[in-house]
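User: Show me sequence and structure for the first protein, then do the same for the second.

Assistant: Starting with the first protein.
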Amino acid sequence: MLKIAIENNYSETAYVVRRGAGEYDLKWFTPGGEVELCGHATLATSFVIHIFVDPGVPEMHFHTLSGELIVRACDEGGYTMDFPIGAYKPIPVSEAILAATGGMALEAYYDGEGGDMIVFVPSEEALAAFVPDFDLMKRVDGRGIVMTAPSSEYDFVSRCFYPKLDVPEDPVTGSAHTYLTPLWAGRLGRAEMTARQVSRRGGTLRVRLAGDRVFITGSARLFMHGDIPFDL
């Protein structure tokens, strides 16, 4: 699976095994190794299952390293993923965090257990213009660095960097929004929000906080299909 992920050279490659209609085993690999949770690859997997494998199945249960994840097809199109919230706690902004964010870091959150480092920066414009130094980012604790800012058009925006996993910048990151959603819900005082990841490709997500779960809604589009020979 890692060899195929390296050949694909996408942020994540998803692998799914069908147990039966609506029940599946699911794993995700970056070119740098296996990860415990990936949102956009889960969304893509749900799209493929719903359209091609078990056409029209309304609800998909995925058994993963992060436990059971449920994805539901929306009547208006798209899919809603039911994820556990990410663990985090406030930490001081260190010199390493400040350097890795171009001096912009205002606040930082990290669980100390290998999750994402969440960093608040002043503005959407500064975040969009930010040019990352991946060597500096690798010196910061955590799996990756998620930078986020308020937005005039959306409720909040973000960019996500995972150079330790050989993913310099992830285009749209569902797992990062398991941290961002509760953090921004607390700041904005509402449970439902619209988020935008301002990577070069970009993507818009609808998010909702409900207890210890985060519901993330997005859509997918088929752009290629084919076969991979299993003689790697």
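Switching to the second protein now.
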Amino acid sequence: MVDIAIQVSDLRKSFKDNQVLKGVDFEVERGEIFALLGSNGAGKTTIVNILSTLMDKDGGTASVCGFDVGRQAGKVRESISLTGQFAAVDGVLTGRENIVLIAKLRGVKNHAEVADQMLGRFGLGEAANKRASAYSGGMARRLDIAMSLVGNPAVIFLDEPTTGLDPEGRLEVWKTIKAFSETGTTIFLTTQYLEEAEQLADRIAILHGGKIIANGTLDELKKLFPPATEEYIIKQPTLEEIFLAIVGAEKEQAR
């Protein structure tokens, strides 16, 4: 029997005369990375806000970990963590102090031990006592995600987690997401980057025109298109590959 972490049926939401969600349906299995793809303004963040109880729906049903987002909002909040589009870290505090603060707010014991574990797990041990304002974009995002995992939430929402990051920072966040997905945490990821969904997701849904127009694994979605033809071509490196190669070479020379 499939264990469902998130269940959405006929979800609807309007803002004045603009109907953003027109009957959205999908399920997320427990322990998987589920990517919701869509262009800017498609309604991805609206869905996240409804599922995390920050916004009321107009119609339909939605539940997280078996709890209705409307009638059992408190239970939903106890089961989830949310990381928005921009890192919500306190720049005045150090990395360790940020995590300790969240641990205290969530009633987690052994604050210092939890902070050390999280900092080590996300490769921030050496920067633990630096102010978060001194962190790079990728480091701040990793700290933000580490803070989200304090207390071991059953479901974590990542709303466009790599927005505004450079290529190196984006790869850092990808590695982080892959690492903690192995712990059994259910991850609901929104993105407008096709490559991001391809790299991370177990299952992908495409939101367009207020509805889910496709939903499945990458292999299942590929079957919606005509069979690929075999051609022999010379593949040119992408600008991102060139950038990373040059930066990597510079780092090696500097050592």
